[in-house]
Sequence to fold (355 residues):
Amino acid sequence: MDKNLVLMTNDKCQMTNEGKIFRIIDANLNRATEGARVVEEICRFILEDEKLTLSFKKIRGLMRRVIRESGNQGAGYQGIGRSGTLLKKRESVADVGRKSYTKSEGRRESFEGVFVANMKRAQEAVRCLEEFSKLIKPVYGQRFKAIRFKLYQLEKELHPRIVKAVKLDFGIYVVTDQEFDHLKMIRRALAGGVKMIQLRDKYISREQYLRLAKKAARLISRKWAVFILNDYWDMVEKVGAAGVHLGQADLRTVSLAKVRKEIGDDKIIGVSTHSYAQALQAAKAGADYISVGPIYRTPSKPGIKPVGIKLLRRVLRSVRIPVVAIGGIDKKNIGSVRRAGCRRAAVIRAAGAIV
Fold:
C-alpha cells in the first residue's frame, strides 16, 4: 500500500475521532472537578480545615491547567485548551449517558456517603483524562497520573476524619455512672434517641469492665449509636467501641499520640479538660473532641470548683474540634450551655430528665 495513502487514512481517522476525544475530555474534566469541588466543600464547611480546602482547590486548578497546556500539542488537537473549545464540542442532549441514573446515585445516607461517592467520581474521571490525554502527548498522561495518586492519598487522610465527623454530630452525650445500673441507663438513653454513650465506672476491676463493655456494645450497636469507653483505650478493638475518652490522669501515663497509633485514625479520642490551657493542648495533640468542665457543681466531681460558662465560651472561640460541656448539667441549666454556643452536652444524673 502507498505510504502516503496510509498517512492520509490515519489523519482522516484522527480528525474523525477528534470531536469524540474532545467530548470525553470535556465530560471527565467536568466530572473530576465537580467531584473535587464537593469534597472541597466538605473540607471547608464540615471539617473546617483550611489546608485541605486549599488542596482540593489547587487540584481543580491543576486539572484545568494541564488541559490548557495541551492546546498546542498533538496532531488534530490544536486548540483544545482554548477558551470555549471543549464547550463547543459538548453534546449534552445527544449524550447516551445523560439519562443514566442508578439507584445508588439517588440516595446519600450521610456526609461519608457524599464524600466516598465524589472522591471515587473524581478519581475515575482523572483516570479517563490520564488515558485519553496520552493521545495528545504522553507527558499529560503522566501529569494526570500524579493528580490521581494525590487524590488517593487525600482519600486515605480524609476518610477517617469524615467518619468521625458523622459520629460526633450529636447533641446529648450520656455518660453512665457507677451509682446507677449501667445497662438500664444505656437502654433508657437509647430509647430516648441518644446517639453518643460513654461507659464510665471507676470502681470495678479491669475484667469486670471488659465484660460490662461487651454487653453494652451489643446493646448500643443495635441502635447504631456511638459507644465510647472511659480510660481503657487498649480495649477499644476487643469491645468494638468507636473510641475512648481520656482524663488528664490518663495522659500522665500515656501520650495521646501513643493511643492514636494503637487504636487507629478512624477511632475517636476524647479528652477531659478543666482549663483553657488543657483545652488548647488537647486540641493541638490531636483529640477528636474535648469535654470542658465541670461547668456547674456536680457530685461526680466533689470538692472541685466549677469552671463556669465563661471558660466554655472562651474555649469554643479558640478550638475547631467539637466541644462538649460537662458537669452538673440538667434540664434547668442546659439552656445556658446552648446560649453560650455549645450544642453538645454530657449528662449523667440528669440523663433521664433531658432525654
Summary: The chain has two domains: 3-166, 170-354. The mean pLDDT is 88. The first strand starts at residue 172 and ends at 175.
